[in-house]
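Hi F.,

I've been meaning to write this up properly since the lab meeting, where we talked about keeping a consistent format for the predictions we share between groups. The idea is simple: the sequence comes first, exactly as it goes in, then the structure tokens exactly as they come out, then a line or two of notes. No screenshots and no reformatting. I'm using this chain as the first example so we have something concrete to point to.
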Amino acid sequence: MRWDNLTDGPARSSALFGADAVVTRTFDTPEFRGITFHEVRARSIVNRVPGASRMPFEWTVNPYRGCSHACVYCFARKTHSYLDLDTGLGFDSQIVVKTNAPELLRRELASHRWTGAHIAMGTNVDCYQRAEGRYRLMPGIIEALRDHANPFSILTKGTLILRDLPLLQQAAEVTDVGISVSVGFTDTALWRTVEPGTPSPAARLGAVRTLTDAGIECGVLMAPVIPFLGDAPEQLRDTVRAIAESGATSVTPLVLHLRPGAREWFTAWLGEHHPHLVERYERMYAGGSYAPTWYQRQITRQVHELAAEFGIGPNGRGAARRITAPERPEPAAPTQLTLL
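Output, unedited:
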């Protein structure tokens, strides 16, 4: 594996950690069977988002690389290739754990160079994946952000976030905290095949209810809406209804996009489970990673109409995480954020 000369940017001019700082572990317990953990001492933890990114935030914290949620469409799969790790099964089962993330974050927040900008978490891989149950990095991370009154947001499919509810409440008393839970569909058969390592959609929506009842506003990122598998009118209606019943403060639909790395893995899955759709996907995504604009607009319109019907307001760009996006001209047609 290529541990040396690793950075989050294309230049890779300095190492985040060296080979002598890596400890590899496996645990013979049912929840971790088949998963290998690479414990590292990171050299930095607050990462700047590339300027060309569509993300409505500038800084992120990612305590893990790789994700046992094993979502077949996950755009972050490509990042595993930077470590010479497999972007398919390797991404699901070879998890890099930055064991010093909380102490490192506290130190970086205390630096005179840090200006208190918003920090987003869970936008690459899920910070509440199963590994978090063992390594417990997020409590220390939230405590550091709370103690520095630094605004932050979390996007997750993990119900483990409820463990940290008291810390989130404490942080919300002193700074801006935004929580979003990702639920693209409520079809259980689809969930079991495309998101096999995640809590069920019902469990995630139950977490939304618990968070909102506790006074933590929580939006739902309805992502991804999967063409030809999760986009039927009755499926969209069932999902938006369930989101509204969860007490979510907002719903934001995002259509599936397929970046290199994720595209190959998803296409292989599609060929095995839904071979009759392979050609349709080739046509739909012939122009690149994103579905055609007309299709994105159609899904957005349908979801917003359903949201209005069920009494939940559509969500503007970045607002689910209380992020103020930089001013820019309004696009001629809705654009799709590259979150999932």
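Notes:
The two ends are 26 Å apart (CA to CA).
Residues 293-309 form the longest helix (17 residues).

If this format works for you, I'll send the rest the same way.

G.
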